[in-house]
Amino acid sequence: MWSPKQLLRPQVVSLLSQAGFFPLQIEFLGWLPGNASALNNSRNPVKAAHTILAGEGSLKMLPKMLARKKESVRPLEVPDHTEVDEMMIDFNKWAESQFPEDEGDEYAAEE
Questions:
Q1: Separation CA 88–CA 20 (nearest Å)
Q2: N or C terminus: fewer CB in 10 A for the chain?
Q3: Measured between alpha carbons, how far is 74 from 14 in angstroms, rounded to an integer?
Q4: If residue 64 lies in a helix (H) or strand (E), which one and from where to where?
């Protein structure tokens, strides 16, 4: 899954985590340079984070970030790779045929 570059300082990430912000919120707050800069330079990053999340900018930008995350998991367009898939399936069948299941485990007889 796509993860945006984290622009928050480790100390700020730690403070936000301790204050009860969940990872997706912290990821979002550290994604945009303006928000990250405001939090990194704030005397009270926790209060600043609450203010940022309550703002209208978050309502506008969060759907964009979530759309990118969803796209990374389930792309809208997937290139055709049927030929490669078939080659892998054929190889897997061949590999399985090299170790027939009815012969049993040769090491089990030694015990």
A1: 46
A2: C
A3: 31
A4: helix 56-73
- For residue 61, what are its two tokens? 């930008």
**Shortest CA distance to 17 belongs to which of 26, 8, 4, 9?**
26
Give tens-digit pLDDT for 25-76.
999 999 999 999 999 999 999 999 999 999 999 999 999 999 988 888 877 7
Which of these, 42, 39, 67, lies nearest to 53 by C-alpha position?
A: 39
Encoding tokens for residue 75? 């792309």
Give the C-alpha separation, 3 to 24, whole Å.
Answer: 10
Taken as a whole, the chain contains a residue count of 111
CA–CA separation, 106 and 15 (whole Å): 57
Cα distances (angstroms) measured from residue 79 to each of 18, 23, 70, 101:
43, 32, 17, 36
**Alpha-carbon gap, residue 36 to 61, rounded angstroms:** 14
Q: State the Cα–Cα distance between residues 99 and 83, nearest whole angstrom.
A: 25
